[in-house]
Amino acid sequence: MDLEDAMDVEGFDAATLLAIAERIELSRRPEHLIYRESELDEVWRLLDLTLCAERETMPGEVRDALVLLRAQVVEAHDLIGIDSQPAAAARRLREAAARLADRSTLPG
Hints:
Blueprint: H1 14-26, H2 30-53, H3 60-81, H4 86-101
């Protein structure tokens, strides 16, 4: 696992969130955490694109779950960058991944 660069983020599924959480937990240098923030930025971007593109056809419960997930990703991002609490950010992502895993019908 190369912590010296941002990983390619191609979705917002539970496996992706867990991979980022693990990378956060293993990150030791400030620049590593900047890369983790950029990974979370990409997750947020993908979530936002999905919410915008499918807003009219997406069932309300799916939309609500994705809005919550997007908020959790922002919270994890802020826990790293603003609050300097990477362990709390990783926990938040693990919680989000567990909730997402329970909803296998969600896109991402």
